[in-house]
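README: folding subset

This subset contains proteins for which both the sequence and a predicted structure token string are available. Records are stored as plain text. Below is the entry for Mos1 transposase HTH domain-containing protein (145 residues), shown exactly as it appears on disk.
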Amino acid sequence: MDSSRSAQRAIIQFLRAEREYASQINRRMKEVYGEQCLARCTIFLWCQRYEARRVSIKDLPRPGQAHVVTNSATISAVDELIRQNRRVTTRRIAVELSISKGAVHCIIHKKLDYDKVCAQWVPKHLSENQKTARMGVCPTQEFLH
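--- output ---
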């Protein structure tokens, strides 16, 4: 049983077209969907919208910033800025790319996997050369202790 919101909205739209009351729609949907059913107030709200001749079951666009900041072009631009200057700050990157500091922080830490060490951005994971160099140091360190 598809319990997605859009599927339930389509059912509400159909039942309103058949002149069902909002309370009856709510009761019938609770019987079918149980815990996955839309809230009572949401069902009544969509009934009102369909009474006002709304035809779409999709949400209308909302105001606010779109979530297109963390696309591949922005991620590569942030990576390029960090590679040019390992001491660059998130504020400086945000100003240069005209995006928020939070978006820059998310890109750096979650997408690029960088950490700030001694005021420089470094990858969290070691490269193969770094792993090999570390393995070469390990045997000499055991004898020192």
